[in-house]
Amino acid sequence: MPYEIRLKRIYEPSDTGDGKRILVDRLWPRGVKKEQARLDEWMKGIAPSPGLRRQFNHKPERFAEFRELYEKELASDPLHQQLINQICQYAQEGNVTLLYAAKDPVHNHAVVLRDWVKKKLR
């Protein structure tokens, strides 16, 4: 099953290879109009808890701990598990692009989520 799970900032233009476009942030990104986003789905519930997000505060030196704690949330929360299963189902049908607003393309929750989904698909 040749699927691809991509990551993309919501501010980047969509393209035909994106497949299913899913916003994985809890909050709507500043300055983006809904029609401009070209979303298939907004999965607010898959985002890290507000407390975990505040603790991480997009600081790269806190990313390893953030990853560990977010993975615990992904593993233990029934809503997270339901949404991950939905993403996996989409990935079996074609490409999936997880959209996020964070400026850092390496240290953000979408990276952790993509890696988690890929593990589940193996």
From TrEMBL:
InterPro entries: YeaO-like (IPR052552). This is DUF488 domain-containing protein. It comes from Collibacillus ludicampi.
